[in-house]
Amino acid sequence: MIAERLEGDVFSIHGTVAAVPDAVTAALLEIRQHLVQDGTARAPHWEIVVAEVLNNIVEHAFENHLGGEITLRLDFRPAGLCASFRDNGHAMPGGMLPPSPTADLDVPRADLPEGGFGWQLIRGFARRIDYHRRDGCNHLELDIPLADPAAGMTDAERARRQARK
User: Which key words are in the record (predicted)?
Assistant: First the structure.
């Protein structure tokens, strides 16, 4: 993963991840480490969404087969995260985002649905979701609002922001 600070107070992390569960876990740890090293404090829900997307790609686009790669770019901005993911796995069914059915949770524990909450979760956090397939490649882009930029800022980030004013 490459991490770099760009103009406009953007901290960008980008790279390629092997489409296997262990590589996804390692990539998430590395992303978190880059954020800590930069002094960039962010609301934790970005990681839930990114992990869900990456795991969905591994499980569904590649069906847990070895050999696939996921290219990602995470641009952390003061008010939100612009995330893009590319892979050459299977297209989403029907070429569109899966539905997020509302599950009845007022049932005995044994009758609770086993899955299907991922897209509901992603939709709950994302302000914009765009999916399309072009030239045999899946393209997914998300805009995820993050907490008030001043809330939870580290001293280093606050000083950097003040120096730019």
Answer: ATP-binding, Kinase, Nucleotide-binding, Serine/threonine-protein kinase, Transferase
Structure tokens at 93: 């069914």
CA dist., res. 103 & res. 74, Å (int): 31
Find out whether 149 and 8 touch, Cβ atoms under 8 Å: no
Q: Both tokens of residue 112?
A: 């609770």
90/112 Cα distance (integer angstroms)? 28
Q: For residues 56 and 118, is the Cβ–Cβ distance under 8 A?
A: yes
CA distance 83 to 74: 5
- The matching CATH number, chosen from 3.30.565.10, 3.40.50.720, 1.25.40.20, 3.40.50.10420, for 2-164 is 3.30.565.10
* Contact call for residues 17 and 24 (beta carbons, < 8 A): yes
Question: Taking the model in full, what pTM does it have?
Answer: 0.81
